[in-house]
Amino acid sequence: MGWVSLEGMEFYARHGYYEEERKIGNKYSVDVQLEVDFAEAASEDKLEGTVNYEKVYEVVAEVMSIDAMLLEHLAGKMIRKLKDAFPKVIKVQVKVSKYNPPIKGLCHRAMVTLEG
Question: How many Å apart are CA 55 and CA 41, to the nearest integer?
Fold first, then answer.
């Protein structure tokens, strides 16, 4: 077993609980870790034995392109879509961060981590 990770994927999107957030948009960051059985890839050096991280990015980008209110919803949707797209995946961990969240104070980013 091993992990494939994509860290620091950045998107500009219109997610948020407040209507103003969905109008203005914001910068988001996504980190994804996929637990995979690498036995085939390790012995045969073939992409079919692992996950194609270009395709992982495409799945994440697709989810980020659809407006949502909650970071938790985005993370859950990514987990479901990634597991559907890659049968070799055993477990997925997703971190979704929103930069400069709308709170009354300084906060670089708000982050949600979900595993499934």
Answer: 17
Question: If DSSP codes are grouped into helix, strand and coil, which group holds residue 2?
Answer: strand
Q: Distance between CA 3 and CA 41 in Å, rounded?
A: 13
* CB neighbour burial string for 1-30, b if at least 16 within 10 angstroms, e if fewer: eeebeeeebebebebbeeeebbeeebebbb
Strands (E) across the chain are located at 2-13, 26-36, 89-99, 109-115
User: pTM of the prediction?
Assistant: 0.92
How far is residue 113's CA from residue 43's CA, in Å, rounded to a whole number? 32
- Three-state DSSP state, 107: coil
User: Bridge-partner residues for 95, per DSSP?
Assistant: 31, 113
> Tens digit of pLDDT for each residue in 45-65?
888 889 999 999 999 999 999
